[in-house]
Write a structure and sequence with these properties.
- The complex is a heterodimer of chains A (440) and B (390).
- Chain A has 440 residues and is α/β, with parallel strands linked by helices.
- Chain A has one domain.
- Chain A is built from 18 helices and 10 strands.
- In chain A, the strands form 3 sheets. Chain A has a 4-stranded parallel β-sheet with strand order 2-1-5-6, with helices on both faces.
- In chain A, helix 10 packs antiparallel against helix 11.
- In chain B, 48% of the residues lie in helices and 11% in strands.
- Chain B has a domain of 146 residues: Rossmann fold (3-Layer(aba) Sandwich), CATH 3.40.50.
- In chain B, the strands form 2 sheets. Chain B has a 4-stranded parallel β-sheet with strand order 2-1-3-4, sandwiched between helices.
- With 390 residues, chain B is of the alpha/beta class.
- In chain B, helix 13 links the parallel strand 7 and strand 8.
- In chain B, helix 1 packs antiparallel against helix 9, helix 10 packs parallel to helix 14 and helix 12 packs across helix 13.
- Classes of the chains: A alpha/beta (440), B alpha/beta (390).
- The interface between A and B is large, with 57 and 63 residues.
- Bound molecules: iron/sulfur cluster (2 copies).
- The site of one iron/sulfur cluster has 16 residues of chain B, from helix 4, helix 5 and helix 13.
């Protein structure tokens, strides 16, 4: 079979899909609402919490009706809108190094410019919850602490411990970890009561937990839809929208409803054999993050080869471990939250550092041809050991991988020609492997 | 004939141990203890008492300058990672340090956490562990948690060393390390109060040797150095007194410390701060020694950019250090590509600015070999202050 040219691919007429665009529309609506809530809280002087996608503790904060700002998301939005560099340089002018996380600088740049963000106004935080899941979260939180004198709660979830470590329910280590995390759940509740002046309502909390259970179930179902060939959605591009909503609306019925809409649209595509990328030829797994400052170009480098990403590790760690199956026991909400935090984050974060087994499983279940490891200068949390992981998977499991580097938000680190050369060569090698496999 | 110890000769002894990436003192220890096991640990802090009580030799891996060529490690780490993570990996990949049975990383930053996985994938015969020191340091639950985590790492140690550690052995090790910290504190006191008697490079080498040799021997080395210092003569020079901040993990090259001390007295610093992390004696008599160590880590300790503790706001800690050392100025350094160190520079700079304390911001890399630019900056900085205070 000959490969259709780009031109031929463009004129393929798709069968009409009744649900086409419903996910995108709902996404836009919810993101607008989220910004409107932040804007209103800022104007009315209501307390807002700054949190992070890995371990947002939305289940607790939502109980207090506290609007939650996700600076990682708002930094990403500056990049997608082509404005990140202006904020990054503002932060650098104030003394922040060119070598630190660009998300931090894009956000601090907005704050230094008075809070005006391309999509709204960033309110001053009244509370910051920073987990240890990325150490930079803690440093970032300390910057706001200095700027706004707001309380910072470092929520510490002990993680993967090294050689031979497994999270085992019932082990002494698991019990110690859960006890520590449970104490912090209670400390955070007490602190949020203080900041908001509201009493903790355990029934509201239970409702939020129930929503997260549902969100996690749906999230896994959505991901599994991408085991279809062709993959109905691209985890690289449409995946970002999913992640935005599951974070911003974690614990809210709106988040759950959104995933129902996405699931229905992607299921329709799957049933009709419509892929996210026309004439899908290569199925890829992204490890790391995308480059948002040059997002379309980045995606295009793979789409030009009809490569789709049915999965990414970003969909795992940046989803607060939803993909690992969160099951809160509503009869013991606080204890169960602590247990689930330990179980799911140890798996998701362990997967980031010690990812080879999980990646191998995804390669098998999602029928992946090759892994793209994208190291980003901003983020040592996802990038540090990627070259080693790539080499290990190739040597031990014969899984081909490509290691490339650029950045999340800093367009100065984007080098189109260099990336294109490496990516083209990778696809060519995948083609040769395929041809060799067919001959055998 | 009894040779007479001089500060210079003792410092040279320390230098040969510190600058040799094959860790000669550890090899000698292994010759004397053929069945002995070696536990390496990454910066910043590790409770070495746990390894010592099990009869293991704890070694502090603090990176290397150009004495160690990076040949293999680069292929395993992303490009924008600090130098110490590369040199630590290279030490083992190159076979220079082929005596480790266990290696422990603390979760100080994401480079360190990833590094543990890289080590575990590549060195199957080294038990590579993360000791999960608590990040919510002020939580009342932190001490009980850390006690449990120390017990977990002790179980790993016991397995590697094929032994059981008693409370008595732990108490004896705590006493030995208490003595070591006391001696280092004394060394720092001398440097702070009479910096013309003990230079920054000398104090640095004498302190850093702790991580490269058996601690019993290091205690003796420091005792000899302190005795030799009592008879040392020197006259104060007209130099400004500075605090050096930024040596908590990757270490500045010796030549950089030397360049700074040519123009200033470094009266306090955070070089190898893990060796001095616990600021007073750990009292383990009549209590659970592991809990005593956990309590000391959290409640009687120094500060660094890789620990958030609302009870120890870092800028205030730095200002206190400046005051207590009678320093006039601060050098706020950070290792290249070190996210936590670089981020902290801004906060420190603002606090010093508000307090009216002059400061010089700089970056370094353990592998840097030319310092002309830095020399000029430091000299200009020092001269401007001498002039101002004249
Ligand atoms: S280092 Fe990575 S995970 Fe951490 S804040 Fe920056 S982009 Fe996010
Ligand atoms: S130098 Fe900085 S980034 Fe590197 S290991 Fe040390 S703390 Fe981490």
């Amino acid at each position: 079979m000959t490969t259709p040219t780009k031109h031929e691919r463009r004129i393929v007429i798709r069968p009409p899909l009744s649900l086409a665009g419903t996910t995108r529309d709902e996404n836009r609506k919810l993101i607008r609402e989220w910004w409107a809530e932040l804007d209103a809280a800022g104007e009315e002087g209501r307390p807002v919490a700054n949190v992070f996608v890995m371990g947002s503790m939305a289940e607790i904060l939502r109980t207090f009706d506290m609007p939650i700002a996700f600076p990682e998301m708002t930094s990403l939005q500056t990049a997608v809108r082509g404005r990140s560099l202006e904020f990054i340089t503002t932060a650098e002018d104030a003394g922040y190094s060119p070598d630190i996380c660009g998300y931090v600088k894009a956000d601090i740049g907005v704050h230094l410019q008075g809070g005006d963000h391309p999509m709204g106004h960033l309110p001053e935080p009244s509370l910051v919850v920073a987990t240890n899941l990325c150490n930079t979260y803690i440093k970032w939180a300390e910057i706001w602490e200095r700027m706004y004198d707001c309380p910072v709660f470092v929520f510490d979830i002990p993680g993967w411990r090294g050689s031979g470590f497994e999270t085992k329910r019932g082990s002494g280590t698991f019990r110690d970890d859960v006890r520590y995390v449970e104490a912090q759940v209670r400390e955070l509740i007490a602190l949020t009561e203080e900041v908001t002046g509201k009493k903790f309502d355990i029934d509201r909390f239970r409702e939020n937990l129930a929503q997260v259970n549902e969100l996690s179930r749906l999230f896994r179902e959505v991901l599994e839809l991408n085991q279809h060939r062709p993959a109905p959605f691209n985890a690289l591009t449409e995946g970002i929208n999913l992640m935005g909503i599951v974070n911003a609306y974690r614990g809210s019925p709106k988040g759950t409803r959104f995933l129902e809409i996405a699931k229905a649209e992607f299921a329709e595509r799957a049933a009709r054999g419509v892929g996210a990328v026309p004439d899908e030829r290569f199925r890829l797994l992204l490890v790391g993050t995308a480059c948002y400052s040059n997002f379309r170009d980045f995606a295009g480098l793979f789409e030009d080869w009809q490569g789709v990403f049915p999965h990414s590790d970003y969909m795992s760690f940046a989803g607060g471990a939803l993909d690992r199956g969160v099951h809160y026991d509503l009869d013991r909400p606080i204890e169960s939250m602590a247990e689930q935090m330990v179980l799911t984050t140890q798996e998701a974060m362990g997967g980031m550092f010690w990812g080879q087994d999980w990646l191998t499983e995804v390669v098998r279940e999602w029928s992946i041809d090759g892994i793209v490891f994208h190291g980003v200068k901003s983020c040592r949390t996802v990038s540090t050991g990627l070259p080693d992981e790539r080499e290990w998977l190739l040597r031990r499991r014969d899984i081909p991988g490509l290691f490339i580097q650029s950045d999340l938000v800093d367009p100065r680190l984007w080098s189109a020609a260099q990336l294109k050369n490496r990516i083209d060569a990778f696809f060519e090698s995948l083609e040769s492997r395929r041809a060799a496999g067919a001959r055998r | 004939m009894i040779s007479v110890d001089t500060v210079e000769s003792i410092v040279e002894e320390a230098r040969t141990l510190v600058e040799d990436p094959s860790y000669p003192a550890a090899r000698r220890w292994l010759e004397d203890h053929p069945e002995g096991k070696v536990l390496g640990h990454f910066q910043v802090y590790f409770p070495e008492e746990l390894a010592h009580a099990a009869g293991m030799l704890p070694l502090k891996i603090a990176g290397f300058d150009t004495t160690l060529q990076i040949r293999k490690a680069d292929a395993h780490l992303a490009a924008f990672v600090c130098s110490i993570a590369r040199s630590a990996l290279e030490l083992v990949m190159s076979g220079t340090l082929d005596i480790l049975d266990m290696f422990v990383f603390p979760p100080i930053c994401d480079v360190a956490r990833h590094s543990c996985a890289v080590w575990a994938r590549n060195f199957e015969d080294i038990d590579s562990q993360i000791l999960y020191l608590p990040h919510n340091a002020a939580s009342p639950a932190a001490v009980p948690y850390l006690t449990g985590e120390y017990r977990r790492i002790l179980r790993e140690i016991e397995e590697v060393a094929s032994t059981r550690v008693t409370d008595g052995a732990l108490r004896a090790s705590i006493e030995l390390f208490n003595e070591n910290r006391r001696l280092i504190r004394e060394l720092y006191r001398i440097k702070r109060e009479t910096p013309w008697l003990l230079s920054a490079v000398e104090a640095y080498l004498l302190t850093r040797a702790a991580g490269a040799m058996p601690r019993e021997e290091h205690n003796l080395l420091l005792q000899r150095a302190l005795a030799a210092l009592e008879t040392r003569d020197g006259k104060p020079q007209d130099k400004i007194r500075v605090v050096f901040s930024g040596g908590f993990c990757e270490q500045p090259p010796l030549d950089l410390i030397s360049v700074i001390q040519d123009a200033c007295y470094i009266v306090d610093d955070d070089f190898m701060v893990g060796l001095r992390w616990i600021v007073s004696d750990v009292t383990a008599d009549g209590t659970d020694p592991i809990e005593a160590l956990a309590d000391a880590y959290l409640n009687r300790s120094d500060y660094s950019p890789v620990q958030h503790d609302p009870r120890k706001p870092k800028e205030e800690m730095l200002l206190r250090k400046v005051r207590e050392a009678g320093a006039e100025a601060v050098i706020i350094a950070a290792a290249k590509m070190c996210e936590p160190g670089l981020e902290e520079q801004v906060g420190y700079g603002q606090a010093l600015y508000e307090a009216g304390i002059p400061h010089l911001v700089m970056e370094f890399e353990e592998k840097t070999t030319t310092f002309e630019q830095t020399r000029m900056e430091v000299e200009t900085f020092a001269e401007s202050l001498l002039f101002e205070f004249a």
